[in-house]
């Protein structure tokens, strides 16, 4: 039984982009920022992994987490939320004409 070489750099970057894309799909500011922050810190932390078994486990965990994130992002889009104070307002609402 041979061990797989693990995900390539391109695969990891594609997975990271998927995390960012799906995190940005949340309508609620707090959830969106939480998942963006979590993706950044997790990928940064796992960047230094060298053991193939650990890399494989981190890859599997990330794929499962992405599935959950995708489902929750879709559910989030079904509901509307008022803008938070820290969110920028839509620029067309500020025009004086």
Automatic annotation (TrEMBL):
Pfam families, sorted: Complex1_LYR (PF05347)
InterPro entries: Complex1_LYR_dom, Complex1_LYR_LYRM4, ISC_assembly_LYR
One term under GO cellular component: L-cysteine desulfurase complex
Any single GO BP term: iron-sulfur cluster assembly
Domain Complex 1 LYR protein: 10-67
CDD domains in the cross-refs: Complex1_LYR_LYRM4 (cd20264)
Superkingdom as given in the UniProt entry: Eukaryota
Family the entry assigns: Belongs to the complex I LYR family.
PANTHER family (alphabetical): LYR MOTIF-CONTAINING PROTEIN 4, PROTEIN C6ORF149
Protein name (database record): KLTH0A03850p
């Amino acid at each position: 039984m041979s061990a797989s070489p693990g995900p390539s750099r391109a695969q990891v970057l594609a997975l990271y982009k998927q995390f960012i894309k799906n995190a940005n799909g949340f309508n609620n500011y707090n959830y969106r920022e939480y998942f963006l922050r979590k993706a950044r810190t997790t990928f940064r932390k796992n960047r230094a992994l060298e053991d193939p078994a650990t890399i494989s486990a981190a890859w599997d965990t990330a794929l499962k987490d992405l599935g959950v994130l995708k489902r929750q992002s879709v559910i989030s889009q079904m509901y509307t939320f008022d803008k938070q104070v820290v969110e920028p307002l839509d620029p067309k609402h500020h025009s004086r004409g």
